Amino acid sequence: MSEGLFVTLEGGDGSGKSTQAELLEQWLVERGRTVVRTREPGGTDVGVEIREIVLHHRGDIAPRAEALLYAADRAHHVATVVRPALARGDVVVQDRYLDSSVAYQGAGRVLDPAEVRRLSEWATERLLPDLTILLDLPSEISRARLHGARTRYDRLEAEAVDFHDRVRASYLQLAEAEPARIVVVDAERSVGEIAAVIRARVEPFL
Ligand code: ADP
Ligand code: TYD
């Protein structure tokens, strides 16, 4: 593998991923590392167009088509941004990756989570993060946070609370299955406390 480090942040909408990604980037830069902070969907020019379709298309998208769109975004992102950065020895701090597809597309009840996972593995030629931070938060708390912060809801955020509860449960199952890669962090704590827990988990990799 490469000299770089691949860290992903996962969790429900409004669980604090982008807040923590920014703080982690600052800390890594202070320690002299070159950081590529990126996200899915939408971490490339092609990805921005795919993001517009998956999040803002009016009307339904068939579940398999939706899963393929996220996988297409991921394939292009990994090939053109993530792998080149890791090959240079950079740290990639990424908001969402394949666990998002397993948790969200799997939670729609139509697709088999194991198949969704295999699709992402194919798309990325099996690139797994070195470390995944799962920000775990009851969905009613993240909704309350988002209500305060934003008025425009995208298509997925507008879906029912029970969908988000299934997403949360699915994430926790993934963490149980891969405890060496996925670290569960209690996202009800303060921004500073969570940032400190994340730094402590990242430090051994540096
Ligand atoms: P995500 O990227 O997961 O959607 P954000 O980082 O955008 O989440 O956070 C969603 C909202 O919650 C923002 O208004 C943010 O300021 C707030 N927030 C983030 N972390 C915390 C925290 N630990 N406690 C309380 N509010 C938080
Ligand atoms: P994101 O921009 O990270 O939203 P938020 O900041 O609200 O967490 O992600 C947008 C939405 O895309 C989010 O609801 C989760 C969904 N998503 C999937 O369903 N599958 C995926 O593979 C990815 C990457 C995201």
Q: How would you portray this structure in words?
A:
The protein is α/β, with parallel strands linked by helices. It has a single domain, classed as P-loop containing nucleotide triphosphate hydrolases (Rossmann fold, 3-Layer(aba) Sandwich). The protein contains eight helices and five strands, in the order E-H-E-H-H-E-H-H-E-H-H-E-H. A five-stranded parallel sheet has the order 2-3-1-4-5, sandwiched between helices. The longest helix has 26 residues. The radius of gyration is 16 Å and the shape is globular. The model has no long low-confidence stretch (mean pLDDT 93). The site of adenosine-5'-diphosphate has 13 residues, from helix 1, helix 6 and helix 8.
